[in-house]
Design brief:
Transferase(Phosphotransferase), domain 1, 7 helices, Methylamine Dehydrogenase, Chain H, single chain, 4-stranded antiparallel beta sheet, elongated, 7-stranded antiparallel beta sheet, Phosphorylase Kinase, domain 1, mainly beta
Amino acid sequence: MEHYFGKILHQRYRLTHKIGHGGMATVYLAEDQDRMNQPVVIKQNDHSASPAERTQFEKEAQTLIEASADPQCPRRIPLFHAYFCESEEGWDGQYLVMNYIPGEDLESLMTRLGRPLQYAEALFWLDQVMEVLEFLHNHQPPIFHRDIKPSNIRIAAKDSSAYLVDFGIAGTSRQTFVTSGFSPPEQYRGLDKCDARSDVYALGATLYALVMGDNPPDARARQSGTALPPLDAQRVQSQTGREAIERALQLDPNQRFSSISEMRALLKPDVPPAPPSLRVVVQPPVQLVMPPTISPRQTSAWWSDPGARMMQMTLIGGNRLITGASIQTGRPSGVKLWEIVRWDMPAQLLDTGAHQEGITCVTASRDGTRVASGDWLGVINVWNIRGNRLHLERRYDRGHRGAITALAFSPDGTLLASASSPPEGIVQLWEIHRQDPTPIVLARNLWARGLAFSPDGQWLAMACDNQVRLWNMRTGTEEQTRVAGMSQFGGLVNTVVFSPNGDLLAAAGADRLIHLFDLRDRKTHAVLAPGQWQRRDVAGAHAGEILHLAFSPNADYLAGAGDSTQVSIWDIARDRRAPPVGPFPEEAVSISFGAYWYLLVVALKNGIISLVRLL
């Protein structure tokens, strides 16, 4: 699976560059948006995993994270931060996140020098690699690399230390992932056949390649009779070194060193005391290509609630959909849970949760485990999603006397904000885990038609009347600092939303315009106080009153829907208007992006749900 510049993985990591690509994986450079855009490396396994392999990946990735955080671990492997799995259109991706080490790998270093390394130069760095392997092989459970080669040994620019990178994982796989010349014969039968002696073979092949300038023959070819070219005594003057390489490269695992420690002990007298006097050049990664021009097309549509007067919709985790409809006063309605299996076919209805009245709004918690729905009677239901079912967890029927106009979960899912229509016109907070269902009243005598928490949970934004008001969740008070432009709307404000990375706030309503605010300085990325938030001009108006806004996962695009049969798209990253989506047969009133920026769900006023691809 190839990725574009700016794509967001795991709702957190923004891809910017490609570092490398091999037979087993592609390695990307990304910005960790939860850690001030700190650069991280993300390794993507390039085969779609079976359920068993996914389980094994998660087990081994967790082992790597724990091992790299061990104080006894040599600081010559990347620090592993996280792992995750994501599915996209039938492809199940496995990702491992680690810190970025600027430097140069040994394969590139030799290419730049135009010569093989001296035996002493190579051995100094490989001794550091063997120190790491000793720790990993002795770890419980043992960790085997399975892909040692010159390109996976990175020399850090800061101190010329050798780092072992690009760990091959999913070790119970029966599939074969090999590197010709470096993988031992047993690895051709599956990664689950590898042990410590497999890394011994690959390490011997690496030392051979570094000092000879040529890779050893493929292990299968050697099994068929191709001889291993003898080591040049001028290149490896140490008899011990030649014997160690030849023993490590034995085709029979039982004829190799039984452990890395045994091999290291034999070679230790040959290791020089000082690092090579070679200049390390940081290899600039290749920037990922920009996404192609948007060309929207509808791929599927179905009736969710025939006869609906207004539709509400939200997407969970990229492939699960919650819909709710306002049908007729006094007629029962329901919250529906759908699963989008493929983007070119209607979603599958999994479950329905009942309401006595028409539904006015729906929202979902960030982790996708809870859904809240409100109706015309002022009743709020909180649903817990377990498996494919909606289970009623809470019912708040005494907190509001007017129709529910907006709902929003805090990022950690512990709080639910709700708003009701005039004449009551209040905004409240519900503590989900409290048995006593008494809400905390935040504001009165207003008409809040939209609510949104910032991703860090500090701010609750309220789209009320003709302005946006901010509640500081840390101090428990309304923000009094005047934000330029937040009280200058040309009509009612219907919707407010924070970007997934917390850098932007957008609001819109009756004036058909997008009001966009930068919450970080665009040059320094420094977080700004509300009084310093910078209003940004956004070109073009929507064809009708805007009722709903949605950011793409990578925050590059903003979609708006309302009293129009089209959905407007703004390319925020490039400050331009993108081609609209539609026209649809009815007004588009609610929208949500899928797990990826080019997938869009559109709810029409009459109860039709439409799936759209922007590419």
